[in-house]
Amino acid sequence: MEAVSRVELEIGETTHPRAAADADVVRMSGVSFRYRRQSERLTSLKEYAIRRLQGRVQVREVWALRDIDLSVRRGEVFGIIGRNGAGKSTLLRLVAGVLRPTSGRVVVHGWPVTPLLEIGAGFHHDLTGRENVYLNATLLGHSKHEVDARYESIVDFAELAEVMDEPLRTYSSGMTARLGFSVATAWEPNVLLVDEVLAVGDEAFRKKCEARIEEFRRRSATVLLVSHQSSQLLAISSRVAWVDEGRIRAIGDPQDVVTQYTEAADGR
Question: Rounded to an integer, what distance in angstroms lies between the CA atom of residue 57 and that of residue 52?
Fold first, then answer.
């Protein structure tokens, strides 16, 4: 039987959140994460219930991450690259506190963390764009008064003024991503987590988002960015980590790491 390792998740706030530009804001030590997955696909809830009562539901344990050691400094745009299912999104969710590690230690300073982990997260598709701005901003910890003061700038950045009173279900994925990014970055974050949100939408808006991220970096905010677009990571990242099958295969200079990843991908 596998020994149970010590598990810790520490959330810390620095007295001067913009001080010490070289200080570690995120640190992961020996972090692993395990989840359970059904071994076979069941086509209905009825079939699942019957098999569950019969004790015939088979599950297997999957390690999404294994032995991750990682530190991200204040003021970095830290890129994360890897193929689908490599563990990139799980890593961000551990930093955000959405998941707890099976073993290891995650330390985050400069709380709160602002997560953009998936398109439409924190939105309600039956509410209008306007209503969703207030809903999402409230979930991020902002008061109605604060949202009132920044509402126009949020809409202007998202370039969605003409559809803000339409239900979100009528929006494309690109429009939803634009609104989510605009709300999340209307207030300068201490730590911003972005998971493939910028992969949708037009090139002009992606450039606009990259410019905002660069401005945050100059002001010593910390950004962790998951992307499949190597050109994007090369353009704005300070360092890049390549995650493969739940492990970090390389970490360092963006060009070096992206080259290693690309060569490995081409050789598969």
Answer: 5
- Give the contacts of 183 (CB within 8 A, at least 6 positions apart): 133, 136, 137, 140, 154
User: What domain count does the chain have?
Assistant: 1
**Range of the structural domain that residue 248 is part of:** 7-30+72-266
- Torsion sign, CA atoms 185, 187, 188, 190: negative
Residue holding tokens 């998202």?
158
Mean pLDDT, range 180-195, rounded to an integer = 91
Query: Does the residue 62 lie in any domain?
Result: no
CB 182 within 8 A of CB 150: no
How far is it, in rounded angstroms, from Cα 197 to Cα 32? 25
**Is 64 domain-assigned?**
no
User: Which amino acid type is present at position 94?
Assistant: L
The CATH number of whichever domain residue 201 belongs to comes to: 3.40.50.300
**Helix spans in 72-143 (H):** 88-96, 129-139
Q: Give the lowest-confidence range in 59-73, 147-161, 190-204.
A: 190-204
Residue 60 lies inside a defined structural domain of this protein: no
Q: For residue 39, is it within any domain?
A: no
Mean pLDDT, to the nearest integer, of 174-188? 92
The 3-state DSSP class for residue 151 equals helix
CB neighbours of 177 closer than 8 A, spacing ≥ 6?
Answer: 119, 197, 198, 200, 201
Strands 59-73 and 191-195: unpaired
